[in-house]
């Protein structure tokens, strides 16, 4: 048992739902105590960790001896959210990162590691927006921060970001000089130039603090972390946390699961390593055309070679998580089953490697070369361990017969001793005539001869009483006592020998960690590339053309997720051609449910898929590299921070306008809808103007119900109007989901309300009110509301938004002068006849 005392025990019983007991006294009061079984400790530890706690494991370091009351104990490990590596509680598809954040003068240094895989990354960032985007991608389980930063008011701005459990450390741990020394000592290097960490002082400070913290908690050398990978965010497309959420790349906005996300649709990986790598690719689309083309060539190769693709997928299905298995081995936490699984996987990889012949794409050739030959490790394991070893490693039953002569001899003694015990029982029954006599074993009392109370009168004189039971007595003889020491000694010696042999094998394999990790990385990438090819075949994707130009042209594009969700319904594809000249900003109008949001989001998803190296859901696609994608979609609030829906909308829009570049793609859906109509139209108009004037080259898709914005196409070159077509039929509408050039003058919101089951009274009354509003909507020249004192817009002649014809017509005057309250029904009919005659005469 692992036992907890005092306040720890009280707290643990509530979290773990176990019994609180007591032991001994302190200050005149009983000491609260609880405990959990040793063999089930991981389960209880996981629950404590998920409750936001850290767990220190204290082990007995020596065997108890006679006359010694206090046994030496030591804390052998401290388990925290970022250092918990138990297999059963880690998500195979997700890295369990622990992050270290170093801050100085609005610059940020990041270091993060996954000790279950041995990854270690560092980077530096120079803006809060880029930091938040990176923190979202990392999604750490635990974050180390300097004490001074925890007291800084700016730290409150980080509460929306998923940092995991916060661990505050002394500032000195992040000191550059101390951290530099710590890193050099760990990696046994003279300088950090080989890691690309030159001039990354903040990141080095964060990395040193992280290494020191992990060593402190693990109480062992970090043999599995043997390199640092530095990177710059400029290598990858930037997506802020809002864009990740709105585009539902990894999590949906409903229950935050992967259901209905791009990750779920693309994930046909066969290994845990591949799952984690695919997620990283989705989070980090590339900007380098050549690197994207390398991936596309590999996907094309698998696409064209279906037989090899099938064989590759089949082999990969039999590969375990080499990355995590090899790290467990290097950290001395792996059991015999882990090692057998690793050996089987390495054997499969050798067979897979043989399938790849010459004339394969460069990236595949490099990956195949990284698949090392592990015949030595496979041979070690197959000679040493039995095929299906037990989970435990200290109870014996692991090592094959014939592997170790000493072990075989000791086992033979134990086995012969047990055979002797069987013969002893037969002999004693014959000698005493007691047919119910039996020879048994008890962990506490050792070996014994048991005789029931009814036969005690037949017990020989050389039997020595050992234990009294309710219905029987247990005895021992000098001869049995002698054999007991031989058998138990042999069994214990055998167990100890097996454990020693196993540890020797584990350490031997652990020394090959670098080779194993390189192979694991290569397998992960082969898995993702072949997965993307399989996806392309099944889903009918085509290979995109990537270049450094400024145009996005997609023919018959489809939404990758929605087309799967629709299942039996056919998805209606659409074209788009957007550039930095005549087709730069699209104002998209149309009915609710007509597909505006689908159209603009599918464009962003196709661009992301293309830039991770995937084929795309389109007949044809040409993608000019996009450096950033920004999205502003839907309505949500943060009431716990005092932010309304509209405030959140404005914050997200402000972030876009302040950070977009001339190579960015901006997706805006219903900007300005969170406030009054006039305010909303004004803000939406000004946003489009800003993109048009200040973000030259940026491409934008702006879905809106503000039809007033369609006027912008007449005064701004490059602004185009599009709408999603609907067909009216017998007072009903049919959604065609087809994008067409030109604007739509109706939203059909009332029809959508009807489809939603709104009461008939509300639907009918809404139509009446709409008709009234449309007759007397905006008065005067609306264009003047949006004009500037000194307009920088192109001066062109155009009509007002709404032409008004409310003139002083004589018939209209007569109608307005009628006193309806004093009019009889007959007078009313006469008046109508008079007005009708007057109108006929006027129109001839």
- Unreliable segments of 5+ consecutive residues: 777-786, 789-806
Task: Report how far the terminal alpha carbons are from each other.
Answer: 105 Å
The number of helical elements comes to 27
Structural class assignment: alpha/beta
Radius of gyration: 38 Å
Strand content: 15-25%
Overall shape: elongated
Average per-residue pLDDT, rounded, comes to 85
Beta strand count: 26
Which descriptors apply to this entry?
alpha/beta; seven-stranded mixed beta sheet; 844 residues
Q: Could you please describe the fold and organization of this structure?
A:
- A seven-stranded mixed β-sheet has the order 12-22-23-24-20-25-26, sandwiched between helices.
- α12 runs antiparallel to α18.
- Residues 777-786 and 789-806 have low confidence and may be disordered.
- With 844 residues, the protein is an alpha/beta fold.
- It contains 27 helices and 26 strands.
